[in-house]
Design a protein that fits this description.
- This protein is of the alpha+beta class and about 170 residues long.
- The chain folds into 2 domains: about 1-75; about 80-170, 2-Layer Sandwich (Alpha-Beta Plaits).
- About 60% of the residues lie in helices and about 25% in strands.
- It is built from 3 helices and 4 strands, in the order H-H-E-E-H-E-E.
- It has a 4-stranded antiparallel beta sheet with strand order 1-2-4-3, with helices on one face.
- Helix 2 packs across helix 3 (about 125-135).
- The longest helix has about 70 residues, at about 5-75.
- It is rod-shaped and about 115 Å long.
């Protein structure tokens, strides 16, 4: 009879130890699932950030290409001034300017910007649009800084156009 109570106590200790082990394994499994969900959420966030960065990369490459194009225009620039450049643009369109006045130049680091004010009288809107387009696509880096278009009192179909244009150079 003595062996029976000893076996029961030993059996109870074994069951108790196994129950504790099962509970610990269950807790570890639950904790692992919780951490896995957290890592899945973090992974999803990182994937979203990566896709945002990839979409911005395309924009950055477009901007880089535009900057490179402008820098190439600056490098190709000959030693002509802003006045002669504007005269060439006007001559290619067959427009006469009333006045082209150089306004001076400013220097920023290695680049300089030459400004000029140009006034054209008695022109139509189509000629003005063509002029603005020609300035925009010019092989030289021209930048339109200010524009003013007013109709004339005598003929409302004719306009007086005043433009401030700058030429960038290295």
């Amino acid at each position: 009879m003595k062996s029976m109570p000893g076996k029961t106590v030993f059996f109870d200790k074994a069951i108790l130890a196994m129950s504790v082990a099962v509970i610990l394994v269950f807790i570890i499994i639950v904790m692992s699932i919780i951490y896995a969900k957290g890592y899945e959420n973090k992974n999803l966030q990182l994937k979203n950030q990566l896709s945002n960065i990839k979409s911005l990369t395309g924009s950055v490459l477009d901007i880089k290409a535009a900057v490179q194009s402008k820098e190439n225009k600056i490098r190709r620039r000959k030693s002509t001034g802003i006045v002669s450049t504007l005269e060439q643009v006007l001559k290619s369109l067959g427009i006469q300017a009333r006045a082209i006045k150089p306004l001076g130049s400013t220097r920023i680091d290695e680049y300089s910007e030459e400004n000029a004010k140009m006034e054209i009288e008695g022109t139509d809107l189509n000629s003005i649009v063509n002029l603005l387009y020609k300035i925009d696509i010019s092989p030289l880096p021209l930048k339109l800084k200010a524009a003013s278009v007013k109709s004339t009192f005598e003929d409302p179909d004719k306009f007086v156009c005043t433009l401030t244009v700058s030429l960038m150079s290295k």
